[in-house]
Amino acid sequence: VDGMHCATCEAFIEAVATDTEGVSAASASYVTDTVRIDHDPEAVTTDELSETVSGLGYSAYPRDDAFERRRADNMATVRLAVGVLVGMAVMLQYIVIIYPTYFAFPFYDERTLEYLNSAMASTSGTYFFIVIAVLTTIVLFVTGRPILRGAYVSAKTRSPNMDLLVAIAAVSAYVYSTLAVVFVESPSVYYDVTVAIIVIVTVGNHYEDAIKSRATELLSDLTAVQVDSARRLVDENAGGADGDEGAAGVDEAGPTEEVALDALDPGDRVLVRAGERIPVDGDVVDGDAAVDESVVTGESMPVRKGPGDAVVGGSVVADGSLTVAVGPDATSSLDRVAELVWDLQSGNHGVQKLADRLATIFVPAVLAIAVLAAGANLALGNGVTTAMLVGLTVLIVSCPCALGLATPLAVAAGIRDALERNIVVFDDTVFERVRDADTVVSTRRGRLTTGEMRVVERDLD
Fold first, then answer.
1. CA dist 358 to 6, 162, 201, 345, 352, Å?
2. Final residue of a domain: which of 312, 331, 350?
3. CA–CA gap between residue 165 and residue 400 (Å, rounded)
4. What is the band of 221 on the pLDDT scale with cuts at 50, 70, 90?
5. What was the pLDDT predicted at 141?
6. Are 203 and 271 within one domain?
């Protein structure tokens, strides 16, 4: 799901999915930009689910759709480029023309400052501010679209988050400045605040997404190698197999049929040829082959398997062929690993979730203080413009740009440093939990190896 970048997005998408007829459960993970939906294919199709989830700027598509993934990444890059380039154009006008009229820059002489002030108060100045407003509108609604979407979802679900805080400050500065251009003769505009907030937060989020995408490919790799069917040996004495039958054939080991994994029962025999993945856990009853179990166990070298040996689902038969008796659970170790990885990636998201929890308290407080400040100015006899400016100042000063930028950058930096040391991090909360660890345990199937073979002993005649 392109555009999902906070815990509030997760809750919203899960709610939308579970409200769909035929859906029994939904679990979203903004860490992987993915939502897993358990549904009845006869009641609702995958395409219909994608259309349902796609809304308010989200874009849902199958995980293995490389074209859609690339297009989503390109759109994110375009939004960032638009924000940076157009934002530079806006800030250049402020630095060269607007700021000198506010602060009387020492490198402008008095005559130049008088000219700039008179120009800003003229009709030409109004047109100039309109151009700035148009450029800022592009930054706010193109580059800031994910932030505005997150703020809307936050308000809709009544769960204030960081996006809502950032959006309040950016939109408030934009609305005040636009009203000032329309109704005030010599306006003070704060489009620079809108541009700076949107671009800074977007850069931080984009950097985090770019780093995180390199480290969260593990689940995609696991699901890509999962199999959904098996070649089951048919018991001729039983007059054929029951259940849903697929493509039938005859092999040296006997007649076979292609069946779905959920049609397998404990004790069924499945045939696995060279180059194929073993569909489920079980025991070898016939054949001899080298089996590559690296995707499940991490063991870099194939292991020889023969009758009586246990094999794990998801491993690959490197040579020969095996007849495997389905284990008592009729499940695959690879499926369980993928399930475990998903549970970790869709769990609590640490510091980002803490920031969002703080926002639930901070947002109402900021809004209340801004209203009180504006109301106090009106009560003291100040004009509406002054009161609005005071309220706007409270909202802008309270914008947590530092927190909104520091959180994604801190997470991204940790993931980047881990990748440089060949450590794949698929759960960013590990950085918070690892500080309490004093023991690292490696199980028998979790050997720590370099994956490179070397001669350690030789015996020559």
1. 14, 9, 18, 22, 10
2. 331
3. 7
4. low
5. 95
6. no
156-165, 244-253, 302-311, 388-397: lowest mean pLDDT where? 244-253
Closest CA to 327 of 366, 279, 367: 279
- Position with higher pLDDT, 291 vs 449: 291
- State which of 331, 351, 379 marks the end of a domain: 331
Q: Please tell me whether residues 289 and 401 are part of one structural domain.
A: no
Contacts of 186 (CB under 8 A, 6+ apart): 120, 121, 125
d(CA 109, CA 16): 61
- Tell me which of 9-18, 86-95, 259-268, 336-345 is least confident: 336-345
Whether 222 and 234 map to the same domain: the answer is no
Pair 48, 70 in one domain: yes
Query: Which CATH number fits the domain that encloses residue 247?
Result: 2.70.150.10
> Does residue 135 sit in the same domain as residue 180?
yes
What would the pLDDT profile of 74-106 be if each residue is shown by its tens digit? 888 899 999 999 999 999 999 888 888 777 666
Residues 189 and 110 in one domain: yes
Residue with tokens 């025991």: 283
* Residue 139 lies in domain: 1-226+336-448
> Which of 73, 39, 54, 27 is closest to 341 using CA atoms?
27
Please indicate, yes or no, whether residues 154 and 13 belong to a single structural domain of this protein: yes
Question: Residue 190: is it exposed, middle or buried by C-beta count within 10 angstroms (0-12/13-18/19+)?
Answer: buried
| pLDDT at residue 318, as a whole number | 87
- 261 falls within a domain: yes
Q: How many domains does the chain have?
A: 2
Shared-domain flag, residues 97 and 37: yes
What is the overall mean pLDDT for the chain? Answer: 78
| 213 Cβ neighbours under 8 A, 6+ residues apart | 73
User: Does some domain include residue 30?
Assistant: yes
Phi/psi at 202 (5° precision): -65, -40
User: 317: closest CA among 230, 220, 441?
Assistant: 230
Amino acid at 326: V
**Residues 151, 157, 159, 165: what is their CA dihedral angle, to the nearest 10 degrees?**
10
Number of helical (H) and strand (E) elements in the chain, helices listed first: 16, 12
Spatial distance between the Cα atoms of 202 and 119, rounded to a whole number of angstroms: 34
C-beta separation of 33 from 2 below 8 A = yes
